[in-house]
């Protein structure tokens, strides 16, 4: 469970996080994560008995920029709207790309799609059997776009499928006249960072740290 109490609230009174986690336990959740940015938020969490478990880069791409080119090698894939028939394969691909801490199940996938007022959930498939090779979820909210999640099956990486999915999402956010599109990625995910920088995302000076309570 990601605790979503606004930082401006819990920075003044960290005990609010304890109460929020108690509610979560009553709902059946057993693990709680809190996002923090900036030295003040991090110091408050450490003093409240939380410890850092991961760090994320934050990147933004200005929507005024022209769309990147899609590699010719990506044109063998078919881009289509995700449906309920794709969910099991989407979860399989996602779990093949992310370590267990970040891997999604069906509930987490549904939450990612519903996280913003508008969303775009697309998959790429290949071959006569329509094998699912990757997927991406983009969201819109508050005049900004968000790349919520993207994964390409390791067997199909290196062919430009991720770029095709991202360009499709960027085109969609442009139609909604967003100011910019944001994405987060683990600091140790150098391959993803390299791709985002190549596609003109700009790395922000301040990232996000993920904390969890030292005692459950």
UniProtKB/TrEMBL annotation:
Instruction: Give the matching PANTHER family.
Output: L-AMINO ACID N-ACETYLTRANSFERASE
| Superkingdom classification of source | Bacteria
Q: Where is the N-acetyltransferase domain?
A: 77-216
Annotated PROSITE patterns: GNAT
What is the protein's name according to its record?
GNAT family N-acetyltransferase
Gene3D superfamilies reported in the protein's UniProt record: 3.40.630.30
Keywords assigned by UniProt? Acyltransferase, Transferase
Q: Which GO terms describe its molecular function?
A: acyltransferase activity
Please name the top-level EC class of this enzyme.
transferase
Q: Which InterPro entries match?
A: Acyl_CoA_acyltransferase (IPR016181), GNAT_dom (IPR000182), MshD_Acetyltransferase (IPR050276)
Q: What is its EC number?
A: 2.3.1.-
